Inverse folding.
């Protein structure tokens, strides 16, 4: 029986890491009945995905060209949604800011049994975006396998 209906990836601005994780998960999960999306902790207006992040996605056969950043809100939390942050500090901030609503909140690495954050490549060169993509790819592949196993 399916435990979760939705996976939400959270990054600082929802313009780089979280949309890349969303695209990877949509590509890897192969479970049509689980929604993957992304949110930002600080989103002042709907921005598109970072051009370098999109370039890395395209190089890997994916795209988030139509993506628009959206803020994390209290309504994003429920018992059938997993929330994944890119950094442990983001998880802690969410637990503090949404203390009355926050459930099922994990750093992506933590949930996958690994340590360390998914570091932001913002302001860096394309190879750093590629390294971030690879880290997200490794983690989302592990996450997809875990969710498939949980649902069997």
């Amino acid at each position: 029986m399916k435990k979760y209906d939705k996976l939400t990836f959270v990054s600082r601005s929802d313009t780089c890491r979280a949309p890349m994780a969303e695209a990877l998960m949509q590509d890897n999960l192969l479970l049509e009945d689980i929604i993957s999306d992304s949110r930002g902790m600080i989103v002042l207006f709907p921005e598109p995905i970072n051009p370098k992040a999109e370039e890395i996605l395209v190089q890997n056969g994916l795209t988030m060209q139509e993506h628009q950043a959206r803020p994390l809100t209290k309504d994003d939390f429920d018992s059938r949604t997993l929330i994944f942050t890119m950094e442990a500090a983001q998880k802690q901030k969410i637990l503090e800011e949404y203390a009355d609503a926050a459930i099922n909140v994990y750093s992506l690495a933590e949930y996958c049994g690994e340590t360390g954050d998914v570091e932001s490549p913002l302001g860096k060169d394309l190879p750093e975006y590629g390294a971030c993509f690879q880290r997200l790819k490794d983690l989302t592949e592990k996450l997809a396998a875990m969710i498939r196993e949980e649902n069997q």
Q: What stands out?
A: The two ends are 7 Å apart (CA to CA). The helical segments are 17-28, 51-59, 88-97, 108-111, 126-150.
